[in-house]
Amino acid sequence: MNDKIRILIVDDEQKVLNVIEAYLLKEGFEVLTSVDGEDALNIFNNEPLHLIILDLMLPKISGEEVCNKIRATSSVPIIMLTAKAEEDNKIDGLTIGADDYITKPFSNRELVSRVKAIIRRTYRDNNPLAELLIINNGDLEINIGKMLIKKQGKTISLTSNEFKILVALLTNPGQIFSREQLVNKAFGIEYDGFDRTVDTHIKNIRQKIEDYPKNPKYIISIYGMGYKFQG
């Protein structure tokens, strides 16, 4: 991660996309864009994001489905963007996991104000931009940008896949991931490996970061559900 808030805009209207992007860039945000739901999910699964502006009327995969898939593994803030103005649609959007809802046509200044408000509300108690994560008073140090991990001050080596799984877990502390969800979050929906390989990766990670791998304190197994990170 760099030192900027990273926002994904998803809208199939290129003119709308360009205008929103210009306003957010002017405010100092880093912006990624997508014109369809399938591409948006691929970006979500492969890039660190702090907020998503999501149109509902999208090709390939609808905005509602995109929102549902994101909410299955992440609490990243989502602002719904749509031409639908009816009250029921607003309620539906919030029900499936949106944090805010704005209808077209809209004021770009209002949208930027809402973005800033959600960013402040979501990240006021912690720094979302921290590249270095320090856990349990330095027992673990994880530098996401450099893919560097230290255990009690000593550098340890993880494979790329192990690192991706660990980052997926520790950036969503306390959230339970099924094997399939963890595969999608760590490797993307196009990954064609077997979700059962997650167990092997988890075992290897525990051997490297846990004091007692058979009695882990960081990566916890939840019977019948999957794994979560705590610490």
From TrEMBL:
Domain of life: Bacteria
Segments of the chain annotated as binding DNA: 132-231
Keyword set includes S-adenosyl-L-methionine: no
SUPFAM superfamilies with a match to the protein in the record: C-terminal effector domain of the bipartite response regulators, CheY-like
Molecular-function annotations in GO: phosphorelay response regulator activity; transcription cis-regulatory region binding
Ranges of residues in domain Response regulatory: 6-119
Record function comment: May play the central regulatory role in sporulation. It may be an element of the effector pathway responsible for the activation of sporulation genes in response to nutritional stress. Spo0A may act in concert with spo0H (a sigma factor) to control the expression of some genes that are critical to the sporulation process.
Name used for this protein in its record: Stage 0 sporulation protein A homolog
Origin species: Clostridium vincentii
Name of encoding gene: regX3_2
